[in-house]
Amino acid sequence: MDEEKFTVQVYIDNGVVYEYDVASAHKVREHADAIVKTGYRHNDGKGEFEHYPPHRISKVKCNGVIPTRYPDRVSGT
Length: 77
Description:
By secondary structure, the protein is an alpha+beta fold. It has one domain: SH3 type barrels, CATH 2.30.30. Helix content is 18%, strand content 36%. It is built from one helix and five strands, in the order ββαβββ.
């Protein structure tokens, strides 16, 4: 049986999108909350570390089936 996959995507104001996977819907919520509050830290594992403050983040998008008791509706003009 395949494990569910949850992906966090962080959109930076320069057009770059960083993405990584987490283990659970609970972790998705924790990560999204922390990124919005404190910014995003990128580490490529090869000696480069960058911190983007919250005002540089355009959007945090989370993919996967994330349960909610408050589903919203979208409309536009």
